[in-house]
């Protein structure tokens, strides 16, 4: 099993698992550093202790035999396998030519000692410096974050904005240090594959050069050497190409949102501060939390660095999640959850507003319920298109031909619903009655038109107008007067047959009709049947099919104003049609 992979995205999450993987790499670097020191020490022994050369070579050979390469990932390539086995091959060769090594000592310092020392100081040393910087920025960021989250929401906005800017700056410094440290660790782990082997290979080549008796052994070693060089070159080429891609990935990760949700086994994970109630108040403790949307499993692990106790992990089954109003708690970025295992709610604090939004989305969190009837500019403020479309889709998917209008209730109190209907609710598109100077005539004419609407259109219109009456009664707060509501809903409820300039000029009359419906909704009940009986004072012969013929003294029922000026709608002998208004007398 090789070293665990370090992803750049883990730097943003900074999970306990990420820290454990870092420790594995740090342990490997320490082990490699120690090995390099031992190797250099052994090499110096070869140069300085001629009399003890045999013992030094044996120890050096033994060190090579015992060292085991650890590569990143679960599987190794052929090149990596050959490179990992190369030390054992070298050890065998060294044991064979032990007596002939003294000539190699003259060049051993430049060939072997210097490159290894350079790698240890420049590469591993740089990794250790990166660790120091990472540890420093970690302590600084979490200390600053804790102070930031303890800021009261009642502070001045300018002060809070300045605090937000400062924590963003500290967070970015922490992320940069983490990314650079991960990158350097990856680089050192990859470089050691060839920067270890190449000096040793040169050292062995020197052996064959300076020792005549090693010629035959070198001849036999040649195929392996070529294969190893090929493996090293492949590894180097892979490193160069991989390094470029890794650098690009690091830059992309660095440029994304700081609250970026990296891919992983959990729907959402990260640090949250949990409110814990105490006898003398409450405290906020940092926990590392995970949530799986499929099983609704929520876990909390107490990872507070100030806590001297053992890490405790609690598991819960989520019931609900609701965003916490800012004015209900003296903390920012809070939300409440309910779980099966506890009574009441648990209050959690996210690291930022964007971070809270990610948690709410993962947990299907809801907004706190509140009435919007007093919202200033209600129906004039444009809604978020995605949310409007989601609401429309929900309504239309559940709608069927047998559903009652009253069952829709508040779902239909949106302009988008009426605007997207294939046919308008008020299917009569032009009203001469609204142009009349007689206000009573206007009301009666509109009443007549409402009465002629299909039953479902009338029910839906009644539902809407009743709601608009309620809205208009709060006009001092929401500024939605009857006139404003007419302007908004007139073009929506009534449409012209053709989209022309002339039709646009008639929009003002559509607005007047909506105003009449709102103003007279409770006065005369426009949506109830309102008709009278009448008697003909004169006889009349119909000239058109929609008119009625009748003798003098004819009795009419169900008489009410028509949209045609000077005409009434009436029923005579079972037929309904138009009659002249000045020909009859109301009973």
Automatic annotation (TrEMBL):
Name all PH domain ranges.
Answer: 265-368
Q: Which GO terms describe its biological process?
A: signal transduction
Q: Which GO terms describe its cellular component?
A: cytoplasm
**Keyword annotations from UniProtKB, A to Z:** GTPase activation, SH3 domain
Its Gene Ontology molecular function terms? Answer: GTPase activator activity
Q: Which residues form the SH3 domain?
A: 529-587
Chain segments annotated as transmembrane:
none
Boundaries of every Rho-GAP domain copy: 346-525
Q: Name one Pfam family in it.
A: PH
| Identification of the protein by name | Rho GTPase activating protein 42b
User: Which organism does this record belong to?
Assistant: Gouania willdenowi
Query: Gene encoding this chain?
Result: arhgap42
């Amino acid at each position: 099993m090789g070293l665990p992979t370090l992803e750049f995205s883990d730097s943003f999450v900074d999970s306990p698992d990420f820290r454990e993987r870092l420790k594995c790499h740090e342990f490997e670097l320490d082990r490699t550093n120690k090995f390099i020191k031992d190797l250099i020490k052994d090499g110096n022994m070869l140069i300085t202790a001629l009399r003890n050369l045999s013992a030094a070579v044996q120890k050096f050979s033994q060190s090579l035999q015992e060292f085991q390469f650890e590569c990143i990932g679960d599987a190794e390539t052929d090149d990596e396998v050959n490179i990992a086995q190369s030390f054992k091959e070298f050890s065998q060769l060294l044991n064979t030519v032990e007596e002939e090594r003294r000539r190699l000592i003259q060049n051993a310092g430049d060939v072997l000692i210097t490159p290894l020392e350079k790698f240890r100081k420049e590469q591993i040393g740089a990794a250790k410096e990166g660790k120091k910087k990472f540890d420093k920025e970690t302590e600084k960021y979490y200390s600053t974050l804790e102070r930031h989250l303890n800021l009261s929401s009642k502070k001045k906005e300018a002060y809070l904005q300045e605090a937000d800017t400062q924590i963003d700056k500290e967070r970015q410094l922490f992320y940069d240090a983490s990314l650079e440290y991960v990158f350097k660790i990856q680089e050192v782990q990859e470089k050691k594959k060839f920067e270890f082997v190449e000096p040793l290979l040169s050292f062995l080549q020197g052996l064959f050069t300076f020792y005549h008796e090693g010629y035959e052994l070198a001849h036999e070693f040649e195929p392996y050497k070529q294969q190893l060089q090929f493996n090293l070159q492949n590894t180097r080429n892979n490193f160069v190409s991989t390094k470029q891609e890794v650098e690009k990935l690091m830059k992309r990760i660095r440029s994304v949102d700081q609250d970026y949700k990296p891919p992983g086994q959990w729907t959402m994970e990260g640090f949250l501060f949990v409110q814990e109630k105490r006898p003398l108040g409450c405290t906020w403790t940092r926990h590392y939390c995970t949530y799986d949307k499929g099983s609704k499993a929520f876990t909390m692990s107490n990872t507070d660095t100030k806590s001297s106790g053992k890490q405790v992990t609690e598991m819960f089954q989520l019931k609900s999640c609701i965003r916490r109003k800012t004015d209900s708690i003296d903390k920012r970025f809070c939300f409440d959850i309910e779980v099966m295992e506890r009574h009441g709610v648990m209050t959690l604090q996210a690291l930022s507003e964007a971070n809270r939004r990610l948690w709410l989305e993962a947990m299907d969190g809801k907004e706190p319920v509140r009435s919007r009837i007093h919202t200033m500019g209600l129906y004039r403020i444009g809604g978020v298109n995605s949310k409007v479309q989601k609401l429309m889709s929900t309504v239309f998917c559940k709608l069927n031909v047998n559903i009652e209008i009253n069952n829709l209730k508040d779902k239909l109190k949106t302009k988008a619903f009426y605007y997207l209907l294939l046919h308008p609710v008020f299917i009569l598109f032009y009203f001469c009655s609204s142009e009349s100077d007689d206000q009573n005539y206007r009301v009666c004419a509109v009443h007549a038109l409402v009465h002629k609407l299909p039953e479902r259109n009338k029910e839906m219109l009644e539902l809407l107008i009743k709601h608009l009456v309620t809205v208009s009664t709060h006009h001092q707060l929401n500024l939605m007067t009857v006139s404003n509501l007419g302007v908004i809903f007139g073009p929506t409820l009534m449409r012209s047959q053709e989209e022309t300039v002339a039709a646009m000029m008639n929009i003002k009359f559509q607005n007047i009709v909506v105003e009449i419906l709102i103003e007279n909704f409770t006065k005369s009940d426009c949506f109830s049947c309102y008709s009278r009986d009448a008697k003909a004072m004169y006889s009349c012969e119909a000239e058109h099919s929609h008119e009625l013929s009748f003798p003098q003294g004819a009795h009419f029922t169900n008489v009410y104003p028509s949209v045609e000026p000077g005409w009434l709608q009436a029923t005579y002998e079972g037929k309904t049609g138009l009659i002249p208004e000045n020909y009859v007398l109301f009973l």
